[in-house]
Amino acid sequence: MFSRALAHRRTTLQLAFQSAAELITQRIRQLGGQAHAPSFSTSISVLAPAPAPFSGMDILAMSRLVADLQRAGRELPEAGRRLSAELSALCLAAPSGPQIVDAGLWAEEQVRDLRQRLNTIQRQHDLGTVSQAMAGFGLFGGHAPDPDGAGRLTAAAGNGDATALKALLDMQRTGRDRTLAARLNAWWRHLGAAVQDRLIAASPNLVGGLNGLPATVRDRANRRCLAGRKTAITAELERLRRTSEDAEAMVEKLEQALPGRPTGPWLVIPVELEELYRSSRKMDEAIRELGPEMRQITAVENGLALGGRNGRPPALLLQLELGGPGRTAISFGDPDEADNLVTYVPGTGTTLEGFTGDANRAAVVWDQAHYFQPDKKIASIAWLGYTAPQWEATLSLNRTVVNTNAAEMGAPALASFADGLHAAHKAASGARFTVLGHSYGSTVTGLAAQQRSGAFADQVIFVGSPGVGAVKAKDLGVGSVWVGEAPNDPVGDVGSLPLQFTGTFDDAAPYLLKVSGPLGVDPSAPEFGAQQFYVKDSGDPAHTFSAHSKYWDVNSTSLKNLGYLINGQYGALIPFPDPPVGSAEILSPLATSPSPQSPSISTRNPSPHSLPSSTPAGG
């Protein structure tokens, strides 16, 4: 918006001078003189020499722009007034003078805001290029379209309005505004340290959930919330248990006072004793209700404890929502500083109470990627920002694993989280963003990628995928799409089940409509067009579903290949073994190429297995 406004003012200024020059030239000719109207042109100091993808903002170039605007604001009004006087002296009526004055006043108005914003940016960044978020909203935020009123909400939130903070979180969950995280990043960085501290102290649960804020800020806010909630629950449990013990002692005392302690339905219980019974039941229920949340806290603490050991960096708590199904995100490594980032999205059966295992998967992925490239900064994130389907909820329309409803509700949250990673990252370019979806988490990932086509991640990786909500890899809008599937993982073959029509025709038989499983076509099928990486058969019988959870086994082929992929070390991938002599192998051309250095990887289709009647313990 600012560039368009600047271009409009430049054009208006140029036309004003051109028009005035032509009028003066005509008058000179009318008076018998000879004159030619000069040609006017202007330049903008921040234009790139050639069209190219926007990667950030050069601070020195922007400093020159502000200086140019400041000079224009100082000189143009005087030039406009002088021009008006000259035109009047020649009895020429033209709007050129006021237009030039107006351009100068506009430039002067912009300088006041831009100078303040640029000074803030310069205090936080070294000279060089700053991120798109800071360029787009840190400097030019006043010119950005804002259909949902995020600017109004951030202004109120900066004044401590918790309702506005909550409204921003609600807006974030919809995933509609892909610029929201960048707005929030710029807004937060322009707040003073004292204001930031007050917001974290007053509303840590809200601040910690805002995508786009620096990872260390979110960690600080969420840890404060975690500790505060643990203290409150611990105190409440202690109070309830102490009160319950007192009530039980009183019940026993009153029961002993009953004459003969008769039993049976004819027993008349004193009112006081009945009240104690009722109170005791309520306290027991309250204790039971607090139990799950306390177990969630323990799981998060255990996940965080995996950081800072075995050479890993300290863990950062990027999201925390306790109670109910619960949500969280834990990162091993600072995603704002990382060269290579991976976000792992778990699948069916995942709960916050059992999240320690998922955090461990992210930790071992960090271990593997770091082992292969110790000179690179790695950030490995375990993200449970959606309500994963549960096996016991198969008959529930929105929590079942047999449709995409849960994924459709979770995809906007994942898309927004990815927006935040991009917005908060300090480097303007050069980082590799990966999203790794496992089981039903691959369905969430596929749908989220389609909501941010071209801006979601540099690559997506699917393991044990029953379908990603797409017919072709190219539909995801991601440069590189990788699929790994253990030959003895039956979940990976769900997409091959003929349960629904896709609305497209079969490549091999153009007269037949393609069919797929309930979550989309099998992404490991050659016609899907994804790159395949080798996963070794674990040797477990398919009906046990054990292979579905072994992609992260230490020293496994799959974990090593995940590490190579996250680092972009495509040439080092462990290849598929050569097929036995005389065996047939299905091959197809690659639809997408992850990089010019990528090896030629087979798109073989793992041998199908029929699904047994039993269900896996979880995704």
Automatic annotation (TrEMBL):
Bias-annotated ranges (Polar residues): 603-619
Key words, A-Z: Coiled coil
Family annotation (InterPro entries): AB_hydrolase_fold, DUF1023
Positions of region (Disordered): 584-619
Residue runs in coiled coils: 230-257
Low complexity composition-biased segments: 593-602
Positions of the DUF1023 domain: 326-496
One matching Pfam family: Abhydrolase_8
Protein name as it appears in the record: DUF1023 domain-containing protein
Organism annotation: Streptosporangium roseum (strain ATCC 12428 / DSM 43021 / JCM 3005 / KCTC 9067 / NCIMB 10171 / NRRL 2505 / NI 9100)
